[in-house]
Design brief:
It holds the Pfam family DUF7144. The chain has 4 helices and no strands. It is mainly alpha-helical and 129 residues long. It is elongated and about 45 Å long.
Length: 129
């Protein structure tokens, strides 16, 4: 085994981790958005920091869709994938932090998932290339 193939095998774990967790964050954001847009009974709309639950639902929908696309870029090892994944993880952190009043437990779970994506993209960025 050459050193190149050994390095390739060693770095594939973090690429898979970021791709899987970003896809998980995307799916969870899409579910949150669908719930916020379809059935507002399960949310505390008066606890939102800004705007209405419908606005946050649409924001979460776009962030979730972008996170799924970003996960695909990371897993296929496209050039800008890690930077896009880190940025989308940060956007996910921001959205879930600002919407934490509407559904606290779900937002806390998404905060942890997005924080892990940002952490892996920043600490292990050299392993993506």
């Amino acid at each position: 085994m050459t050193s190149t193939s050994g390095r390739r095998a060693a770095r594939s774990g973090w690429v898979t981790f970021v791709g899987a967790y970003l896809a998980l964050a995307g799916v969870l954001n899409l579910l949150w958005a669908a719930g916020a847009l379809a059935d507002k009974r399960n949310f505390a709309e008066n606890e939102l920091v800004w705007s209405t639950l419908s606005t946050w639902g649409w924001i979460a929908l776009f962030i979730g869709a972008a996170q799924l696309l970003g996960a695909g870029l990371v897993v296929t090892r496209k050039g800008a994938g890690p930077w896009i994944a880190g940025f989308l993880g940060f956007l996910g952190l921001l959205v879930n932090f600002l919407a934490i009043g509407a559904y606290p437990i779900w937002s806390a779970i998404l905060l942890a998932v997005n924080a892990l994506v940002v952490w892996a993209c920043t600490v292990h960025s050299d392993e993506f290339f």
